[in-house]
Amino acid sequence: MQTAKDLLKSKTKEVWSISPKKTVFDALKLMAEKEVGALIVMDENAPVGKEKVLGIVTERDYARKIILKGKASSKALVSEIMTPADKMYSVKPETPVEDCMVLMTGKRIRHVPVFDGAKFTGLISIGDVVKSTISSKDMLIEHLSNYISGTY
């Protein structure tokens, strides 16, 4: 059974983050440049290696809290639209992929941070979860086909 930790191993190690003091436009620019749909909001004053997750900002936050409210992304700060850490849904490294899927679909979220205790270890997306689920189902189908055809 695959876990959140397994998903993180298959991804690039880089997780993109932004300061809560940056503008929403800066966040959108970074998301577009890195081709991601979410950024972790980090405390830029924390010492290196002791970074603290303050929240998450997503494309959906932008659509719902800036565009639909007629605000300007060049003036609004990330801190105004981010989901704060105490309201974020998260998983542990040992959380099964199936449980990640249940959480993400049940709460209608597309990105979930992974925490090992208080330590942030990465970010997984619904795309990562779906790809993993399809891959494991394809492998099961192949094994069953081989068994039925007597290839084993």
Could you characterize what this model shows?
α5 packs across α6 (126-149). The model has no long low-confidence stretch (mean pLDDT 88). The two termini are 22 Å apart. It is elongated and about 65 Å long. It has a single domain, classed as Roll (CBS-domain). The strands form 2 sheets. Strands 1-2-3-4 form a 4-stranded mixed β-sheet. The protein contains 6 helices and 6 strands. With 152 residues, it is α+β, with helices and mostly antiparallel strands.
Condensed summary:
The chain is of the alpha+beta class and 152 residues long. The chain is built from 6 helices and 6 strands.
Secondary structure elements and pairings:
Layout: H1 4-9, E1 17-18, H2 24-34, E2 38-42, E3 53-58, H3 59-67, H4 78-81, E4 83-84, H5 97-107, E5 111-116, E6 119-125, H6 126-149
Parallel strand pairs: 1-2
Antiparallel strand pairs: 2-3, 3-4, 5-6
Defining traits:
single chain; alpha+beta; CBS-domain; 6 helices; 152 residues
**How many alpha or pi helices?**
6
Report the CATH architecture: Roll
Structural class: alpha+beta
Helix and strand pattern:
HEHEEHHEHEEH
What's the total number of strands?
6
- In CATH terms, the superfamily is CBS-domain
Radius of gyration: 18 Å
What proportion of the residues form beta strands (DSSP E)? 15-25%
Under CATH at level 1, the class stands as: Alpha Beta
Mean pLDDT: 88
Q: Report the span from N to C terminus.
A: 22 Å
Please list the strands of the largest sheet in the order they lie side by side. Answer: 1-2-3-4
* Uncertain segments: none
Main β-sheet, in a few words? 4 strands, mixed
The general outline is elongated
What is the count of structural domains? 1
Estimated helix fraction? 40-55%
CATH topology-level name: CBS-domain
